[in-house]
């Protein structure tokens, strides 16, 4: 088990016409021993490339990767003591489950046949697949292949697990089941793990910490709740959370924000935070918007709106609201699942002052994040 | 044909089925089946004629019966087959001596080359010209290389190198067999490489990467992953190469040249079989052709299942 450090890691691909494409731009993350780090971002953000550089499957254009304090940049993949689980499972089709799981131990260790057999059987028990040991991948379902692929990584007892969207080929039910199981296994084995996904739900639920990447650059590394409640910038705020945070572009005029469709009164603290910005983006999460039936705004920061569409989820309803004055580009609010709202109904939406986020209009940097209750847990759990 | 009408004695259920089948027959279907039958007959007639001719006496049986009619009792004989086997026996052994090693070596080397050109970690810009050379080599006509080939083997002191063999009692003419092995391997590698390459480009890259992360070296990945999963492709290449090399007359003619040589391959002997001053012994020539073709048929039967799988992939 070891600590994995990415230090200004950079990857530049050179195109055929000689132009450079920066896929990963000076990413630095420290992954503590036994930590579960999720690399998350939209497709093409460089998360898979980062993972492949850790594995040694891509060369590193700049920076350093250290495992247990020692640089592994110049080591071949087979000498890095890293196991990886691929999205396509990448099982060896001509070998049985047992042979698939033994392969890595046969190639990378001097263990005797008995020791290998024992480790394979222990891993199979851990994953509850002992009855599949003598079957070939072609005879297994997707979920079973997934377990074998995990087993192949586990028997190696490597320093680091790398997982490249391992659950994305499973159906929704199986995915949430495997999510829980993967977490349990990782906690049991206490192996440093880097997990790549584009799915923010997986990132939020599985990671000790998540690192959000966009355009090859690290946007924020923090606990899931930190990224949720204290996003470093507008990108993280929009990427983490489902449905996404609502954003409104506003001009700063003293202690008021003025937009095309509404004006917003700031607290003194908020006004100070945005004093130096000409324009800001106001962000508010759907669950923080208070919706009351009626058509008259009675206080500051209340806005008369019209219900556009209601999406019932059972536990809650996602309500798309358009401003009465200009109903284009509706924003979304979530209300309790028992509340009955209908399309075209007139409601008042309130944006509570302690729930809003303010981002710099030009750079997207967070200028002010929402207030949190005392004791809200955003610090790392490890 | 399953669509043929059945007789009145059949059960009523079957009759109804037949009526249904016949109702589905339109002009297009009839024409299609007629064309298929015609083509089948067109391709099978020469083989059938050859086969029945091989069992006829010569010249009486051959000249007094229709070419594709089976031999009547008085003209039936197995003598031609015995003569053919006797005449071709040593040639079959000689052919096998170079066809089997040349086939296996060219398939293996072609597979190595394809593995290196698909899975090895080097830039596409360096791979492309090498691949282009392999592809170009496929299209070099054998006729164009005959003179350089004989000059090349004339300048190589192969016979001297192989002296221990001659001391051990092997006739010196077998130099030609060694030359045939090397020549067929050299000219077989490009097509084998291209066939394997087509297969290896479809192999999951992640699987190869998984094996490398599992600690296997590049050579071990070939040995334990790539080689075992290429069995269907090996069947295709082995059948194709074996048939090519076994049937090739041109190189044999240049490198061994005479049918009287102790190292003469079967194709050289077959060329002169049944030819004499008195005329051609068609029955013997036909029997000889079937005997000479037998090994290629056996190879097809042995690797048939894998062959089908390999062609499909």
From TrEMBL, chain A:
<dbReference type="InterPro" id="IPR047641">
    <property type="entry name" value="ABC_transpr_MalK/UgpC-like"/>
</dbReference>
<keyword id="KW-0813">Transport</keyword>
<dbReference type="InterPro" id="IPR027417">
    <property type="entry name" value="P-loop_NTPase"/>
</dbReference>
<dbReference type="InterPro" id="IPR003439">
    <property type="entry name" value="ABC_transporter-like_ATP-bd"/>
</dbReference>
<dbReference type="GO" id="GO:1902495">
    <property type="term" value="C:transmembrane transporter complex"/>
</dbReference>
<dbReference type="GO" id="GO:0022857">
    <property type="term" value="F:transmembrane transporter activity"/>
</dbReference>
<dbReference type="InterPro" id="IPR012340">
    <property type="entry name" value="NA-bd_OB-fold"/>
</dbReference>
<dbReference type="InterPro" id="IPR040582">
    <property type="entry name" value="OB_MalK-like"/>
</dbReference>
<protein>
    <recommendedName>
        <fullName>ABC-type D-xylose/L-arabinose transporter</fullName>
        <ecNumber>7.5.2.13</ecNumber>
    </recommendedName>
</protein>
<feature type="domain" description="ABC transporter">
    <location>
        <begin position="4"/>
        <end position="240"/>
    </location>
</feature>
<dbReference type="Pfam" id="PF00005">
    <property type="entry name" value="ABC_tran"/>
</dbReference>
<comment type="similarity">
    <text>Belongs to the ABC transporter superfamily. Carbohydrate uptake transporter-1 (CUT1) (TC 3.A.1.1) family.</text>
</comment>
<dbReference type="GO" id="GO:0005524">
    <property type="term" value="F:ATP binding"/>
</dbReference>
<dbReference type="InterPro" id="IPR017871">
    <property type="entry name" value="ABC_transporter-like_CS"/>
</dbReference>
<dbReference type="Pfam" id="PF17912">
    <property type="entry name" value="OB_MalK"/>
</dbReference>
<keyword id="KW-0547">Nucleotide-binding</keyword>
<dbReference type="InterPro" id="IPR015855">
    <property type="entry name" value="ABC_transpr_MalK-like"/>
</dbReference>
<dbReference type="GO" id="GO:0005886">
    <property type="term" value="C:plasma membrane"/>
</dbReference>
<dbReference type="InterPro" id="IPR003593">
    <property type="entry name" value="AAA+_ATPase"/>
</dbReference>
<dbReference type="InterPro" id="IPR008995">
    <property type="entry name" value="Mo/tungstate-bd_C_term_dom"/>
</dbReference>
<keyword id="KW-0067">ATP-binding</keyword>
<comment type="function">
    <text>Part of the ABC transporter complex XacGHIJK involved in the uptake of xylose and arabinose. Responsible for energy coupling to the transport system.</text>
</comment>
<comment type="subunit">
    <text>The complex is composed of two ATP-binding proteins (XacJ and XacK), two transmembrane proteins (XacH and XacI) and a solute-binding protein (XacG).</text>
</comment>
